[in-house]
Write a structure and sequence with these properties.
By secondary structure, this protein is of the alpha+beta class. Helix content is 22%, strand content 51%. The relative contact order is 0.22. InterPro entries: NTF2-like_dom_sf.
Length: 138
Amino acid sequence: MSASDPTAKAELDRITAEFYAAFDNRHGGPADVGRLRRLMLPGGIIVATGPSYTAYTVEEFVAPRELLLSDGRLTDFHEWEVDERTDIAGRVASRTGGYRKSGVLDGEPYEGGGTKTFQFAHTPDGWRITAFSWHDEP
């Protein structure tokens, strides 16, 4: 696999799109944040940066987001990638991209965006996310 491997790039594009889709609860449908358990390696790490730094395990990240996206506080929500750069080196890859998000939080319009970075590894089961981090714009 090389940086110009179109099959690997297409698979990483698919996984990233599925990652963002996991948070979508528009039109009254349930978000499927739990799919991150399948997209990520079990020992994956998630890091939020910004005013404060927080590191999560997959479970520590998924549980509160499942609640937030299902308890009625955050509705009509979705995130999407607006640009990206993906580097593939053999059986590892990294992706950095801008993203936007929109929804209704506690009855008020909610919008934002920032940057997310992903690390991937090609495992016997295919490409998986090993880590991701993000920084929201102020």
